[in-house]
Amino acid sequence: MSYAELQRQVAKINDVLNALSVLTWDSRTQMPLGGADTRGQQLATLTDLARRLILGSELRQALEGAEHEVSSQAPDSIPARTVAQVREAVEVSSRIPAELVSDIAALKPTAQAAWGEARAANDFPRFQPYLEQMLDLSRQLAEAIGYSEHPYDALLLQYEPGMTARSLSALLSELKTATLPLVRAIAQKEPPRCDFLNRDYPEDAQREFALGLAKKFGYDLSRGRLDISLHPFEISFTRQDVRITTRYRRDYLPTGLFGVLHETGHALYEQGVSPELTRSALTTDFLGLYAVGGASFGTHESQSRLWENLVGRSWVFWQVQFPALRATFPEQLGGVDAETFYRAVNRVSPSLIRVEADELTYNLHILLRVELEMALLEGRLAVRDLPNAWNAKVKEYLGLEVPSDTLGVLQDIHWSTGYFGSFPTYTIGNIMSAQFFTAARERVRGLEDALAQDDYAPLLKWLQDNIYQHGRRFSPQELLKHTTGKPLTTGPYLSYLREKYGMLYGLGELA
Ligand code: ZN
User: Fold this and answer.
1) HSE-up of 213 (CA within 13 Å, CB side)?
2) Distance, CA 335 to ligand 1 centroid (Å)?
3) Mean pLDDT estimate for the chain
């Protein structure tokens, strides 16, 4: 009986978190500016309510009974995982003082506003005191959560459970060692022709074409929809309602097109969670106070990148899709063939802005952020010295001079919202995406033929069976072990990068 009661309690928490997500989706797609203040209060009230439910005596009582009731079940069964995750959530959440939670929540909107103003005015000192406060609160949060080696471990726990500063640094340094020579070798080569990407592409036609691809991948529009927002995102209110957004640039086709493919990957994950897990602990991130089916931020990102890059930027894919794309944009793509298009959308060119970076240099943007975050947390770097440290790393890794903080240290919103420790999940997602995709290629018979015939069902089915359906039942490490037999490892990703970019740029000796 207690287990059933626990599930009822958790379902209520999940409902509150889904309601929060609906309000968030609305604020980013529909809400008029005037709604911002009261919406902020509504979000704060629901967040507080969710936290009270998690720390309340009703949940605790149900949990104790449920632990007893399911104690004979296999440790990785759904009931055993449910009680284990609720137990961990209650324990970690109760270590974080309510005052700290409300201090962080209160600082977020003002720090974010200061960041926005500083970015617009290229005025880092305007943002500096807020960033100092946010860093201080993040340090306090790390201390409250607890860690054995590095404060970064505690912050990573919120986004990528199981990952530590030590294991992350090892992965990133392997990636750096392998990527830098590739980027430098490519810099010596003739860049591909890209002019046609900047022609005039009407938004309606972009939307129709991109949504057509999303449907082919398996995005179910009876449980989804596509809207426009300034920053593209995916958000779900149970597997039955999984929404994506994108942003179109009339003068640059890849932004909208690959944005949709990326968010579709996230959406396929959420739509593929087993119905049995709806409104359960295994579709609830208790620490992040977010109703989500994906196992971690990195695991989620592995799916957006798998569909966007490993499928959507592949040569096989554009051989199949290009005729339809050119039929949609006959004037814009007149005189362009599939191979020219494929080369253009895979152009490698070091740039200042992370979100505009190509697949290869993207990880260098993450690497420099992670190194700076760790230095800030350890106190090796002071916030006032951050712009110089940033610029030095951009010079070292990307070979570029940073002309202004707007195009440098102020470009991302993450630090103003206190998301220290979230950047690495993008690169973890890249590494994981290749590991999963390589496993699918080895294990799904006829996968290559299916992809060449515009048939994505076998790939989607393998991903659903092995990853999506489980929701948060297994940790990222368990999912990797089950599907690939290995822990997170850079091997498949580095092979993929070397092979693809070796071919694209004729780097025989490196490929
Ligand atoms: Zn993403």
Assistant:
1) 28
2) 33
3) 96
